[in-house]
Specification:
The complex is a heterodimer of chains A (112) and B (135). In chain A, 37% of the residues lie in helices and 28% in strands. Chain A has 112 residues and is an alpha/beta fold. Chain A has a single domain, classed as STAS domain (Transcription Regulator spoIIAA, 2-Layer Sandwich). In chain A, strands 1, 2, 3, 4, 5 and 6 form a six-stranded mixed beta sheet that branches. In chain A, helix 1 links the parallel strand 2 and strand 3. In chain A, helix 1 packs parallel to helix 2. Chain A starts with a strand and ends in a 5-residue tail after the last helix. Chain B is an alpha+beta fold and 135 residues long. Chain B has one domain: Heat Shock Protein 90 (2-Layer Sandwich). In chain B, strands 1-2-3-5-4 form a five-stranded antiparallel beta sheet, covered by helices on one side. Classes of the chains: A alpha/beta (112), B alpha+beta (135). Chains A and B meet through helix 2 and helix 3 of A and helix 1, helix 2 and helix 3 of B.
Amino acid sequence: MEISLYERDGSKIITVTGRIDAVTSDDLSKWLEEKVSPPESNVVLDCTEVDYVSSAGLRVILQLTKLAKQSGVVFSLCNPQDNLKEVLDISGFSALFPIYATIDEAILPGSK
Amino acid sequence: MIKKIIEIPVTRQGLTDLCKTLDKTLESMDLPAKLKYKIHLIIEEFCANHVEHGDFNEDDVITITLERTDSSLITQIEDKGIPFNPLDLPSVKTNLPLDKREQGGLGIHLVKCFADDLSYRRDGLKNVVTIIKNI
């Protein structure tokens, strides 16, 4: 798993490549704690290159969503692949935060 | 029929090794991509649940048997832990608002949703869970 961060139009974009599973989720959680805790601007998780997410990954996403809400900013997720979309749907996560097809849509002022 | 047997220690290291190698095992069984994703997730969730919440000794193992026929993939997961029937776990409330969402229970919820058939039996001192995925 690889993680990177950049800023665009006032939002923080987190890009993850690879798998977020029982092994890698702790690394992502620690990384988020170091880099975006507390988030001071809206946060987008770009899932374009995410191959796989298990419940361990969902727990990290839930933690980030709650943290964003507590900080008064918006967390959104961008471009999940079909398998991940299904995982988000059946776990009820699709109703917890906005999901966009592209980064452009995610950072549009009207989409928050 | 293709049959594969995987044995992992019920430890963090065992789980790490499983997550790193399971893809290759599934790859060798000529399975559709979507099914591979789901069965990978099912196996990971069971093993993670045992490692994180089970009461096991260092030398205890989980044995995973995969049998691929023309029409299905039958996965059997065995351990010698205390009786644990995943079907007895209460359902996760997936429609709660963010403030009320808890972290736990999602793994077995995903397992239940992704299995076409899920059954449990206690066989002597063993838990035996059988998951069927139609191909």
